[in-house]
């Protein structure tokens, strides 16, 4: 499974908002500079994040974006499910009717078990966990 750029950059955007949440609303151009992602691409990424209620936005001269949830309430699993077209490792897990062998396919069961394990791990890693890790790395330099 290869994650899309939207998933990777969406995670970086959320981590940036968490890192700067004490400063109030964060402007897109500041995120763009810090993360080296174009403002145009960030604007595409932020729409689904707002729709999923991970981010809230404010208009005006002091406007910008903030996390709508606590960093510990947003997981890598949440972000991956939001941006990836398919969250299963193989199509036949969610669409068993596509394969005539799906009812008794032990390989399908293996992929299903691997998908469950992957998301269990992704769901255990929150933006808060990543922020703590980032801070410990920064403080040790």
Description:
The chain is mostly helical and 141 residues long. It has a single domain, classed as Winged helix-like DNA-binding domain superfamily/Winged helix DNA-binding domain (Arc Repressor Mutant, subunit A). It contains seven helices and two strands, in the order H-H-H-E-E-H-H-H-H. Strands 1-2 form a two-stranded antiparallel ribbon. A hairpin with a 5-residue loop joins strand 1 and strand 2. Helix 4 crosses helix 6. The longest helix is centred in the last third of the chain and has 18 residues. It is elongated. The two termini are 33 Å apart. The mean pLDDT is 89.
Task: Give a short summary of the structure.
This protein is mainly α and 141 residues long.
Topology of helices and strands:
Blueprint: H1 5-19, H2 28-35, H3 39-51, E1 55-58, E2 64-67, H4 76-83, H5 91-94, H6 106-123, H7 127-140
Antiparallel strand pairs: 1-2
Helix pairs in contact: 1-3, 1-4, 1-7, 4-6
């Amino acid at each position: 499974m290869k994650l899309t750029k939207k998933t990777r950059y969406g995670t970086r955007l959320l981590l940036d908002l968490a890192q700067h949440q004490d400063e109030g609303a964060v402007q897109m151009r500041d995120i763009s500079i810090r993360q080296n992602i174009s403002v145009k691409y960030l604007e595409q990424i932020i729409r689904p994040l707002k729709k999923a209620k991970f981010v809230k936005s404010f208009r005006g001269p002091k406007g910008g974006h903030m996390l709508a949830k606590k960093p510990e309430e947003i997981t890598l699993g949440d972000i991956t499910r939001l941006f990836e077209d398919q969250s299963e490792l193989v199509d036949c897990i969610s669409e068993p009717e596509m394969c005539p062998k799906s009812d008794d396919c032990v390989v399908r069961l293996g992929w299903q078990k691997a998908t469950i394990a992957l998301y269990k791990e992704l769901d255990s890693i929150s933006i808060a966990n990543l922020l703590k890790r980032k801070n410990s790395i920064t403080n040790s330099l």
